[in-house]
Fold this sequence. Notes:
The model is unreliable at about 85-115 (pLDDT under 50). The chain is of the alpha+beta class. It has a four-stranded antiparallel sheet with strand order 3-4-6-5, sandwiched between helices. The protein has one domain. It has helices at about 10-15, 25, 50-55, 75-85, 100-115, and strands at about 30, 35, 35-45, 45-50, 65, 70-75.
Amino acid sequence: MIEPFVVAGEVLITTTKCHHDFSCITSGQCGNMPMCKVQSVFDKNMLYVESMSEKKNIACPYKMSAGSTIVHICTCPTHHAIYRQSAVSMSRKNRPSDNAVTRNFAKTRMSEDGT
């Protein structure tokens, strides 16, 4: 069994769309699936992740396309807090190109906004 993560109450309050009763805190899993694998930090509230739910065709309210079928952007406040606590980090060579993903994300946002 893994050691439970400690996540601040303010973070939990902002995680309003969790469908799995915060199972990630105690089990390190998102429901009955592994949490999405973090590739890198996008900014203080977003992570680049390899989506585990995509492999099982399960929708996640915190997952956004980053212009790739493999890498997505995770906006889950609790996942971000857990990642900050973990000692796991990906090497630079396994990260997607920051500029390419940022450009694709910007294009996606612009098309969603109709601009």
